[in-house]
Specification:
eight-stranded mixed sheet; 19 helices; 12% strand; elongated; binds adenosine-5'-diphosphate; binds magnesium ion
């Protein structure tokens, strides 16, 4: 089984996909650290790092720009030669604003959109805008060519399709009837405004607190000048996703449902002709031995150390439960291996502590970057 390093050879973009809570942010950051320590200039684009992890990477004051992780923090981890670790916290709204600024004809057109209340609502709520903006930022940084590798920690989508479809959805929205209806001079807004439905409008104004139609038509008119730029950009973002320099790593947990999801993600990625690089199964529990421990025996053994039979029994029950979970994890992973045939599957154990700093990430990397042999020794040792 290859390590993450082999999987990522010659790639410029690694997209970590998977549902929320499985360790996607942790895995993205660990991959970033590992590749930086192998001499690459890496930038991790993250979404929602737990506060302690963000703090320890120096991410706390980050806006939407890449910031270098203090090399002093990394020195103990043998960063090789030119290796650099950078990180940024994605902000969908800021990225959308920057996109508007880029495509606006002039400052006035830009401000007309940015200051518009409809835009402010839409930029937050547009279906998939978080997913799209993550890729938009990825595209922007990739075209600057400053980094050897970009690792994208994706938003917790229910579905990897939300993510793959995001550029298409944005284009559809722009090209779609709802938007066109407002932009055309004979469009809905113009008709409503022209027909003197004054009563309805003034009631609406009272309800929503501002002149909805005026804002709507102003927004869509200002936006219409940007449509070609947006559409073109969305197509380019889309083709970057399928590029051979880009690959997807699916992160999942070892429970039944996450494993099913990983299998589903895999099939969707294949269907969409994306480069599937492998699965990281995170927080795997391992058995302590090969036999199911017996409650009485185990309690006695623990009791002889603790001299507290009540506590000993509770610990014993806990261990037996853990053993059952480990058995179940192994079954689920076997099923995953069967379903994915020859695809790489890398297991990372459930560590004793939370992963909230560089040392924790380095611990994860003993598994992500270890050879098969090292990993199985670590897992059983
Ligand atoms: N292998 C692991 N062992 C122990 N704790 C882990 C492991 N991987 C992640 N964690 C912890 O689990 C929590 C969720 O991880 P996170 O990466 O934020 O998940 P996600 O980004 O998928 O929502 C964090 O507190 C993290 O420190
Ligand atoms: Mg996360």
């Amino acid at each position: 089984m290859p390590s993450i390093e082999q999987i990522l050879e010659d790639r410029e973009i690694c997209i970590c996909a998977g549902s929320g809570g499985v360790g996607k942010t942790t895995t993205s950051a660990a991959i970033g650290l590992g590749m930086a320590s192998r001499g690459l200039k890496v930038c991790v684009l993250t979404i929602d790092p737990a506060k302690r992890l963000a703090d320890s990477l120096g991410l706390e004051e980050l806006g939407n720009e890449a910031t270098r992780v203090d090399p002093g923090l990394l020195s103990e981890h043998q960063i090789n030669g030119d290796g650099e670790l950078w990180a940024m916290m994605l902000d969908a709204k800021e990225t959308f604003d920057a996109l508007v600024a880029r495509h606006a004809e002039d400052a006035e057109a830009r401000d007309r959109v940015l200051d518009n209340r409809i835009y402010q609502q839409i930029s937050n709520a547009l279906a998939g805008s978080q997913e799209y903006m993550a890729m938009e930022k990825l595209f922007e940084i990739h075209s600057e060519g400053r980094f050897d590798l970009l690792v994208l920690d994706t938003p917790p989508s229910r579905n990897v399709l939300d993510f793959l479809d995001a550029p298409k959805r944005l284009t559809q929205f722009i090209e779609g009837r709802s938007l066109q209806m407002f932009i055309r001079p004979t469009g809905f807004a113009a008709r409503v405004a022209g027909r003197g439905t004054g009563v309805v409008l003034s009631v609406l104004k009272k309800i929503v607190g501002f002149d909805l139609f005026a804002d709507l038509s102003e927004f869509f008119n200002a936006f219409s000048g940007m449509i070609d730029g947006f559409r073109d950009r969305a197509h380019r973002v889309s083709s970057l996703l399928g590029d051979e320099k880009t690959c997807f790593v699916v992160v999942c947990g070892p429970q039944g449902e996450p494993v099913d999801e990983a299998v589903y993600f895999h099939s969707k990625l294949m269907e969409n002709e994306m480069n599937f690089a492998g699965v990281v199964v995170n927080r795997v529990r391992y058995r302590f031995g090969t036999k199911v421990p017996k409650l009485r025996e185990l309690t006695d053994r623990i009791d002889s150390e603790l001299d507290d039979s009540d506590l000993a029994e509770r610990i014993a029950r806990n261990l037996i439960e853990y053993d059952a979970l480990a058995v179940r994890d192994a079954k689920n992973i076997a099923r995953l291996t069967d379903s994915l045939e020859d695809e790489p599957i890398i297991r990372v154990p459930y560590l004793d502590t939370d992963v909230h700093d560089i040392d924790g990430l380095a611990e994860i990397n003993r598994y992500l970057f270890g050879t098969e042999e090292e990993r199985s020794r670590l897992a059983t040792g």
